[in-house]
Design brief:
Blueprint lengths: L1 E4 L9 H8 L5 H9 L3 E3 L2 E2 L12 E4 L5 E2 L11 E4 L3 E6 L16 H9 L9 E2 L2 E2 L8 E7 L2 H12 L4 E9 L6 E11 L2 E8 L4 E13 L7 E8 L6 H8 L22 H11 L6 E9 L6 E5 L4 H11 L4
Parallel strand pairs: 5-8, 10-16
Antiparallel strand pairs: 1-4, 2-3, 2-4, 6-7, 7-10, 9-10, 11-15, 11-16, 12-13, 12-14, 14-15, 16-17
Helix pairs in contact: 1-2, 6-7
């Protein structure tokens, strides 16, 4: 049981706001949930409305129950852990691993792995002993992802994402190369009206999306490159944002089954060209890797930054394409 006493400076404020300010390890949403469940009382009487205006001298008791076991079950799935402490964990996710259980993937996910790995160190998110997933990577995108282990960390990271204060950079291998070496792609992204499983750039509706890109390396003919290596930095975090934006400007990711398409290769004149064309045509997933992640630590109060080396398949693709440059 935790007690919050109201002083004169807080008179007339909403109860849920006062509780959130006084109990920073609990999110406002969690406190509203507890109020609705009858876990907040004053003088023994339960308070069921977070909009209740408080008065000086009042004392509110907050009964925070122990976290219940998470609905997803823990599973012993190997993880590449880049960093971990009592608040957060940073994972280098391999391609092929789904982040969160869903209808098509009820288990075998990153969440299942984190529940098993973290165990009792998960202090509870929303009343459940589960990791807080504040951002996701597509199943076949590799690279860095952070998860929260406490409610306080989840709230802090959520606010950083909402303010676009999280640094995220990706490396992508695309067909062709943009005309300009760097630029900003801005659009509205929403569900494709003709295919609800895909996202698309919309003329109206959808959500604002911004992706900055920079061409790092071009492969093949200088005037008309066969492919290129691009760095993308997200200023927003929409579903499939990089994949949709690069397709929108005419340079889809190599290997992307939903948004890409295999380009006809020129006639190979050397073994290096033949190897490069085959590597691009047969790459089995979208060539996208989250190589950089930066954030402000929620309790250490300092910036942290992590990098991830290319996975083997990505590195081999780039190596083969460099054969086009002689």
């Amino acid at each position: 049981m935790r007690t919050v006493r109201i002083d004169a400076s807080q008179a007339g404020e909403r109860l849920d706001r006062i509780l959130a300010a006084s109990l920073p390890d609990l999110s406002r949403a969690r406190l509203q949930q507890l109020i609705a469940q009858g876990a907040v009382s004053r003088g023994g009487a339960k308070i069921g409305d977070g909009n209740t205006r408080v008065k000086p001298g009042e004392a509110y008791a907050v009964d925070v129950p122990a976290p219940i076991p998470a609905a997803p079950k823990g599973q012993d799935i190997p993880l590449s852990i880049i960093y971990e402490d009592k608040d957060v964990i940073v994972i280098d996710k391999p391609a092929g691993l789904v982040v969160h259980p869903a209808a098509g993937n009820p288990d075998g996910t990153l969440v299942n792995a984190l529940i098993a790995h973290c165990g009792a160190s998960l202090k509870g998110i929303g009343g459940e002993a589960r990791p807080g997933i504040v951002h996701r990577l597509d199943k076949d995108t590799s690279g860095l992802l952070i998860a929260a282990k406490t409610e306080k960390a989840m709230t802090s990271l959520g606010k950083q994402f909402a303010k676009h204060a999280i640094e995220r950079a990706y490396h992508a291998v695309v067909w062709g190369a943009p005309r300009t070496s760097e630029g900003l792609i801005e659009s509205q992204i929403g569900r494709n009206p003709f295919d609800r499983k895909r996202m698309g750039v919309l003329r109206s509706g959808g959500k604002e999306a911004r992706t900055r890109y920079k061409v790092i390396e071009r492969f093949g003919d200088a005037a008309r490159p066969f492919a290129s290596l691009i760095e993308c930095r997200l200023e927003t975090g929409r579903t499939h944002q990089i994949r949709v934006h690069l397709t929108h400007i005419g340079h889809p990711l190599i290997g992307d089954p939903a948004y890409g398409n295999t380009r006809a290769a020129p006639r190979a004149k050397t073994p290096e060209q033949e190897k490069a064309y085959a590597a691009a045509a047969n790459f089995p997933r979208q060539a996208l890797h989250a190589w950089l992640l930066g954030f402000f630590h929620p309790t250490l109060n300092k910036p942290m930054r992590f990098e991830s080396a290319w996975p083997e398949d990505f590195a081999k693709l780039v190596e083969a394409l460099r054969g086009l440059n002689g």
